[in-house]
Give the backbone structure.
Amino acid sequence: MSFDVSTIKADFPILAQQVNGQPLVYLDNGATTQKPNAVIDAITHYYRNDNSNVHRGAHTLSDRATSVFEQARKDVKGFLNANSSDEIIWTKGTTEAVNLVAFSWGLQNLRMGDQVLVSHMEHHANIVPWQMVCEKTGAELVPMPVNDDGDIDLDQLNGLLSENVKFVSVAHVSNALGTVNPVQDIINLAHKVGALVMIDGAQAVAHWDIDVQRLDCDFYAFSGHKLYGPTGIGVLYGKADLLNLMTPFMGGGEMIETVTFEKTTFNTLPYKFEPGTPNIAGAVGLSAAINYLNSLDREAVASHEEDVMDYALAKAKQTKGLRIVGNAKHRAGVLSFVIEGTHPHDVGTLLDQQGVAVRTGNHCAMPIMERMGVPGTVRASFALYNSREDVDALFNAIEKIRMFF
Ligand code: PLP
């Protein structure tokens, strides 16, 4: 199978529009990706034909809704190569998945004197829940240092690891710098001291295959909307033996086995972590996104994305007054930069006037912005439908705005 970016682009109807009188060049994929027809059609089909509540009704539509919903879980199981569908918990997104682990596992297991390690480059979603749980339990949140290039230094990490470290939670790919972290090394090192490891895969899953069994991570989280699927649906993968020992942090219908006023006993996995009516259409849309990706040659997609990234980096290096923020050894999907004498927000607005959509600001990663000595950056982030032409459009637009500064 080969890869033709214009055929791919045609699968995404939103991209065929003009913005501010210019063809849309969408480079804000780190925030959310656009959706192919396959996903839009699957959601529409579900609401037109199968919509009902799951696991409840003794009627045909409910059976159908349950069957597509549980099939979606199996699709995610296959996508992550989990051992069992019971290890796939539906959440609203990565944020809820981290909160689930921090509150369910953390409140039960963390004590005064324990440490939780997160890297200096985490998204707030992988800092704040841990901070909240550390405050409640007396455990300490310790940042893993990041060097000036935006890489984690494994020797320094090794120096931090001790038997006090009970949990390590780290991004697979940084949304602010694009750094691809050496998660396999981090998992191996953390396991040596007996710590559990969660990988925040929000920015990774769209770029290459993930195999949670090979990684041997204890938890892995991602959001559907960054994987060409809908918003409001995400996944927590967890090893079954760990999930089985954890007490749910949210209660309600569906997650119980029996309820009396004296005591509630919980349902089996995965339902014990899924109180209330789930986002059924979201799961259907996410499964369509996974099937769409699986219909492509993912190695060809990955090498196309690498080519676009390298092309963008080369252009950035040739651009006068542009400073790339983060120079990681291995990078995916993200180019963060500042332009001398300009504020990132002004650059973003002027690029938007030329049809180029980028994100500006701190990218919900204030600690790493401070570490890099910038209040924020302009971030161009790439997806499989972006091309070298999109990169040219970005840098042509940057040249045009020079006159304003
Ligand atoms: N982690 C990373 C690395 C992210 O990039 C994001 C979103 O940008 C999140 C977590 C939070 O994802 P969500 O808002 O979908 O829960």
In short: The pocket of pyridoxal-5'-phosphate is lined by residues 93-95, 123, 125-126, 171, 175, 200, 202-203, 223 (CB under 6 Å). The chain is about 40% helix and 15% strand. The chain has two domains: 5-30+297-402, 41-294. The radius of gyration is 22 Å.
